[in-house]
């Protein structure tokens, strides 16, 4: 029997938010997080009892993030003044702006593979399904991204990863 949806949000909400922040940045992450759980809530009754809920949610978050990127690419918003900088309070890793800038500079597949594997903890098989490639390609994208991070940001040592 599946747990109540509220418990799913409590258990997996932080992981989904971290993935959204890595893929989209702090500004658009919360909207993608909300959209992820709205879509998940609608589909949850039909989800098989033996499904990997975390991978399912990250898949939805990935698709919502793609929607946000596509929408941003279609919309230009000229402004007279630059908006205020968002606060960094409560954002994990906010003191490591250089690291997040280095992650943001990675090519999309590498950035996503890093996010899904090292932030969300997904296995490479699930990442391959998300990104539409093979397990080896997902592993290579993460390895290439990590190698580039180590060159551009010397402090980028991720837990459980060896050079």
From TrEMBL:
Domain RNA polymerase sigma-70 region: start-end pairs: 8-75
Residue ranges of every copy of the RNA polymerase sigma factor 70 region 4 type domain listed in the record: 98-149
Alphabetic keyword roster: DNA-binding, Sigma factor, Transcription, Transcription regulation
InterPro entries to which the protein is assigned, alphabetical: RNA_pol_sigma-70-like, RNA_pol_sigma-70_dom, RNA_pol_sigma70_r2, RNA_pol_sigma70_r4_t2, RNA_pol_sigma_r2, RNA_pol_sigma_r3/r4-like, WH-like_DNA-bd_sf
An example molecular function term from Gene Ontology annotations: DNA binding
One GO term (biological process): DNA-templated transcription initiation
UniProt xrefs under Pfam families: Sigma70_r2, Sigma70_r4_2
Protein name: RNA polymerase sigma factor (Sigma-70 family)
Organism of provenance: Nocardia neocaledoniensis
